[in-house]
Amino acid sequence: MEIVFEYVMRGVMEVFFTADGAFDWLPLAMVFGGLMTGIAIGATPGLNGPFAMALSLPILIWVFGVNDEALLPILGFLIGIMKGATVGGAVPAVLFNTPGTPDAYLTTLDGHPMTKNGQGPKALKVAHFSSVCGDTVSDMVLFVAAPVLAVLIESILDLPEKGALIILSLSFMAAVAGSSPMKGFIVGVLGMLLALVGSTLSGNGPRMTFGIVELGNGLPLTAAILGVLIIGEVFIGLEEEVRKKVRKFRSAVATPLGDNTFAWPERRKLLPRIGVSALIGTAIGALPGIGTTLAATLGYDVARRFSKTPEKFGTGIPEGVAATEAANSAVSGANLIPVMSLGIPGNFAAVFIILAVESVGEFTLGPHVFRFTEIKVIEDYGTIINNDLVIAFAMFTLMMLANIMNWTIGGAFLRSLGILVKVPKSLMLPVVLLITLTAVYAQDGGFIGVWVLLIFGLIGYVLKRLDISILPFVIGFLLSPRLEEYIRGGYSASGGDGLFLLKSPLAVVFIAASILILVLANRRRKIPEEA
Amino acid sequence: MRLGGKERREALNPWDIGFGAALLVFALWALFFWFPADIPTGFFFINSVGREEPGDAFFPIILASLLVGLSVIQMILSWRNRRSNADVDQTGSITLSNVKFLAIFLTVVGVGLGLMYWLGPVTVAVLNAAGFLDGTYRNFSDTAPYKYLGYVAGGAVMTLALIIWAEGRVRPVAVMTVVAVLVVAILLFDVALRNVLLPPNADF
Lengths: 531, 204
What we know:
The structure holds two protein chains of two kinds. Chain A has helices at about 1-15, 25-40, 50-65, 70-90, 90-95, 105-115, 120-155, 160-175, 180-195, 220-245, 265-285, 290-305, 320-335, 335-340, 350-360, 385-415, 425-445, 445-465, 470-495, 505-530; strands at about 375-380, 380-385. Chain A is mostly helical. Chain A has a two-stranded antiparallel ribbon. The N and C termini of chain A lie far apart (about 55 Å). By secondary structure, chain B is mainly alpha-helical. In chain B, about 65% of the residues lie in helices and about 5% in strands. Chain B has a two-stranded antiparallel ribbon with strand order 1-2. Chain B is flat and about 65 Å long. Chain B starts with a helix and ends in a 12-residue tail after the last helix. Classes of the chains: A mainly alpha, B mainly alpha. Chains A and B meet through helix 3, helix 9, helix 10, helix 17 and helix 18 of A and helix 2, strand 2, helix 3, helix 4 and helix 6 of B.
């Protein structure tokens, strides 16, 4: 226990003090900046947290560089965005009945009627309080579950099992994240294949580049991910705007009437409801790929079922807003459990945390992080310590800092953002396109990044139109180099045994589970259609 | 188009089976044409100590082979599910109207990027020919106003055209927004960050 405490303390100190012992205000400032940016972005229809994280990452890398010292300020900003955007999403849902994301639709059910009843400010206070409660509960679970899971995994998994685990994660994400599990898995494999362009493990020259010299170092990672996630959305959003040709903009917010205070007795009354929703969101968030919509739906449904007055749900009651917001916000912290313990991202925000970690410094995420190596100071040599573990606890500290800032000043900032909701998508999306093009060009130092961005944007558009989830594609693209390392390493270590994956009972279980998940998910999809 | 009665039961979803077929063709092309021509080391190679190791084609071939198998399964599933998923609307599709949108969208973006790439160099070449400047665009790619010409013109044309297309009218607020975004981008990427270049200057 003593060694755990020692690592936790070193992690906390890493955030607040520089190497020479001086107080370091930068990580705090970055968390604050990220949180405010995230709340503003979340409150703007058409924008979301992963978008802001995607655009911020290249800018942060230019400003801070890619050395070890840059990692915490960069992660601080990204974590701030991730948390802020989760809270900010309630603003358009509550004030204007315009959910920016599918899960925010549930917030409109009671949030907007409250606004129409003149209780808009109170609805935002309830949304903020529940959201931050849910997020904090979820973070607590992350801090305990990620190390325990990682230690367990590191002690039992070797190369074949780790490879099989990636395949299992991909099939799970394909099964839960889209309407067609088989197509989701196929695009996951396609993403893996495309990620192999350029880079090689052997160092024997580039591969699969069609002779394009600029692809020698591989497809620009950020451009490819931004293309699928952001530009694909810009294509879709702009097409919808062109069809609608919206000329009228939204009406003004109903004037607040009567008592809009949200006092502690009322907050305490909501706490059981918030607690249940937070646990639902945390449990769902810990599974990769499921996302916030199911959490919000379940949170709302459970609250209504167990309410003494279920008929009041949907008429504008704080319980409805609290149940939804606590559940969808609790997803974000727990979503980092697979990232921290396995190095496998479960959602888009986690993708950008991984991108930042892989681009900056020498820290890598995965089960190896949580090795509690004994700390030894050796004279004339230095300290033997698992620095990755210190950084992991520093990350947890940043998350707690973001929560504290969110508790104290996030609410007031949130309530001042109603104006952002009025920015129409028709204006926002072309601007997003221009900013993304510019950022990608500047990061990759040439038009190659722009072409990759547009081509992957087109892939994102086609997948969306064909109703295929893009999450397996992105995860496959991101994890492919690591899977290749495991597969090639496992093959070599087995002495050239072509069936090396099947020689490990655990790997066989993972592979069998992958197949079973896909088969069951496919059958489940068929049944309602045939009924 | 929705089908009814017996017709509906017999119908096959072209997008479901087409997806599998397209991926199958891609995977076969990759296995038999792309990889052999574009991966220097093969499925295996002999390392410096004479031991056989997986080559750089090892993992791509495994993935492409998996893709072949999965595409065939997808096509079989589409065939078996033809009774249940006959209605194209249920699974998503790409319509002619989507293709038209993409064509116009990509044309606008293409024109914008073309302006971004060529306006600066062409302006410098013209001024050069007229005797006002001496040197190629490379010599002026870090000199105002030449370094901003392509970015401002291309960015403004692309963004404004898309906004006007989406809104069906020209609004002063749109023009002001685009100007403000361009100014902020220049201040951030050119003035504040000294080690990065705006488009198209890194290409010259």
